[in-house]
Specification:
With about 140 residues, this protein is α+β, with helices and mostly antiparallel strands. The protein contains three helices and five strands; from the N terminus they run H-E-E-E-H-E-E-H. A hairpin with a 3-residue loop joins strand 1 and strand 2. The chain is globular, with a radius of gyration of 14 Å. The termini are far apart. The model has no long low-confidence stretch (mean pLDDT about 95).
């Protein structure tokens, strides 16, 4: 059975994408710890990151780093948080988010009630920052 991430990637469920390439996508999470909280996900459905092929693991980390740079630029955070948990959805994903302290690393503090306009604004900010950083070929139209 497909994961919710596979359904988002396939367009069966909505997603606010900020990155798309042949192997990896990135889209905003529906329960962010901060504006701009993004999930970096391989298109290939693999539950544990430790089971990924090394080249794919390297690629999702490259994309996470690019998204992290966009998070820093777009949201003015002190750090770009990076977290792999994987208990919520059995499909490898990296959480990348603006972090000014350790609170963002507690996913229990995520907000499931963010207004749609705030999501749209965060996605636009990330897309703009990614383009300004030279990653425009991977940034979908909003």
């Amino acid at each position: 059975m497909s994961t919710v991430f596979s359904k988002i990637i396939a367009g069966e469920l909505p997603g606010r994408f900020v990155w798309e390439d042949p192997d990896v996508v990135a889209f905003l999470t529906i329960a962010p710890v901060a504006a701009g909280h993004t999930l970096v996900v391989p298109r290939k459905e693999v539950d544990r990151w430790t089971d990924l092929e090394p080249a794919l693991l390297a690629r999702i980390n490259e994309v996470a780093q690019a998204v992290g740079k966009a998070v820093l630029e777009g949201f003015g955070a002190a750090r770009a948080g990076y977290l792999i948990a994987g208990f919520e959805v059995p499909h490898t994903h990296i959480h990348v988010f603006p972090a000014n302290d350790m609170s963002g690393f507690d996913l229990a503090l995520a907000d499931p009630d963010v207004p749609s306009e705030a999501f749209d604004s965060a996605a636009d900010t990330l897309r703009r920052s990614l383009r300004e950083l030279g990653y425009g070929q991977f940034v979908p139209e909003g």
